[in-house]
């Protein structure tokens, strides 16, 4: 691709053999110019390698857990935010709306409370600007211009075009984070960290005399960017795409309503414990993630040494694309790979059934840091919305087009309108 030799892995078997069975050899982050542009040449947790990556990932995971990732406290934050979202939808009085920024606001607020220590009001101008920047970046990554930049970064970096708008958005987000870090510095209490940024600042203070420390200004800005960006755009796009799929499949929506009424009723908020009693809902969410195939090519890996893989010789440093699309649509793993069918995750008794081909978060050493948080958010947001509302499309369901608006780094759904009808 462009000037880089690239190996592409297709099928569940090939991706599993590389990322899981040979995790060490395939565990490094591959070359991707757009990622380099965001991570300032390999800072932060997504774009880094080696010792830097190990330290930042370990620190980020530990800090997120300390702030409740996977625990009751973060569950309460999501439940609270889901109620704010429901109120917003109620205000629409069953009139059709475009849900894009509603989901972005709600999902982003969950990660904001962990990273920045507080949530934003939905009308906050700075917050809205930040979310439109993020949307611009995700869209830019998937556009033809973004893909051209990945292939010819030196040329594309110099010529005008829509991709420059994306670079301005990246700079805008980093500027916002830098400003928040400075604000945190001024009010920091080392004995009482409020959020991820505080914890990072404390670590910077502890390691300030260690030569080559990974805890410095560039580290904090880029790691925060990774958590905030990945924690907003992926889940909110999955929610938006998911409701569009349910508009297209009203029979599935109806079955979810029945399960919610039976297990939770209408008088209390859904909680994460409900998931184990709601196999159909769980299957639908898994199938939504499988079907929309959010990051089709995965994020590139590279091999850490010269190696022989399936009779092929791969030289050290070669960029590897584990084609997640080929795993999520592998006919050996899924009976109807190109159709939306929650039955892919149900056994013949209607119980939830795992499938090894379910890899939307990738796999192996570089599996998504926020997988647990994302799964919790998807369950609680979807369930809370469908407990309170029926979905209605202003256009005929035949007209709803589920193919992506653009497909590159991500599958970006078409814009659409829907009405939330109180149940």
UniProtKB/TrEMBL annotation:
Signal peptide range in chain numbering: none
Membrane topology (UniProt): Peripheral membrane protein
Keyword Metal-binding: yes
Record has Oxidoreductase as a keyword: yes
GO MF term set: arachidonate epoxygenase activity; heme binding; iron ion binding; oxidoreductase activity, acting on paired donors, with incorporation or reduction of molecular oxygen, reduced flavin or flavoprotein as one donor, and incorporation of one atom of oxygen
Co-factor requirement: heme
Keyword annotations of the record: Endoplasmic reticulum, Heme, Iron, Membrane, Metal-binding, Microsome, Monooxygenase, Oxidoreductase
E.C. number(s) listed in UniProt: 1.14.14.1
Protein name listed in UniProt: unspecific monooxygenase
Upper taxonomic lineage: Eukaryota, Metazoa, Chordata, Craniata, Vertebrata
């Amino acid at each position: 691709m462009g000037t880089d030799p690239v190996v592409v892995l297709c099928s569940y078997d090939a991706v599993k053999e590389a990322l899981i069975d040979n995790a060490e050899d395939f565990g490094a982050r591959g070359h991707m110019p757009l990622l380099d542009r965001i991570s300032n040449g390999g800072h932060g947790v997504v774009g880094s390698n080696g010792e830097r990556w190990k330290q930042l990932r370990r620190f980020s995971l530990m800090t997120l857990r300390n702030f409740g990732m996977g625990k009751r406290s973060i569950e309460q934050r999501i439940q609270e935010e889901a109620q704010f979202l429901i109120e917003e939808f109620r205000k629409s009085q069953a009139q059709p709306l475009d849900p894009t920024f509603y989901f972005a606001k709600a999902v982003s607020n969950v990660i904001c409370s962990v990273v920045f220590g507080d949530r934003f009001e939905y009308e906050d101008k700075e917050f809205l600007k930040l979310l439109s920047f993020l949307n611009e970046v995700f869209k830019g990554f998937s556009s033809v211009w973004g893909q051209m930049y990945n292939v010819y970064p030196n040329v594309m970096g110099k010529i005008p075009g829509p991709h420059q708008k994306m670079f301005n958005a990246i700079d805008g987000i980093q500027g916002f984070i830098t400003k928040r870090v400075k604000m945190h510095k001024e009010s920091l209490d080392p004995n009482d960290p409020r959020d991820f940024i505080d914890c990072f600042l404390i670590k910077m203070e502890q390691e300030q005399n260690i030569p080559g420390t990974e805890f410095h200004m560039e580290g904090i800005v880029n790691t925060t960017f990774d958590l905030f960006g990945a924690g907003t755009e992926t889940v909110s796009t999955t929610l938006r795409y998911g409701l569009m799929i349910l508009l297209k499949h009203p029979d599935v929506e109806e079955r979810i309503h029945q399960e919610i009424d039976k297990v939770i009723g209408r008088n209390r908020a859904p909680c994460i414990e409900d998931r184990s009693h709601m196999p159909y809902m769980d299957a639908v969410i898994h199938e939504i993630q499988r079907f929309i195939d959010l990051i089709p090519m995965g994020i590139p890996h590279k091999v850490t040494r010269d190696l022989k893989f399936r009779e092929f010789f791969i030289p050290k440093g070669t960029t590897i694309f584990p084609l997640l699309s080929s795993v999520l649509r592998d006919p050996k793993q899924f009976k109807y790979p190109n159709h939306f069918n929650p039955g892919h995750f149900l056994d013949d008794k209607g119980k939830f059934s795992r499938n090894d081909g379910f890899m939307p978060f990738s796999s192996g050493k570089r599996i998504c840091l926020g997988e647990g948080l994302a799964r919790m958010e998807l369950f609680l947001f979807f369930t809370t919305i469908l407990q309170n509302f029926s979905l209605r499309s202003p256009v005929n369901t035949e007209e709803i087009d589920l193919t992506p608006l653009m497909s590159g780094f991500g599958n970006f759904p078409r814009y659409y309108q829907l009405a939330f009808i109180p149940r």
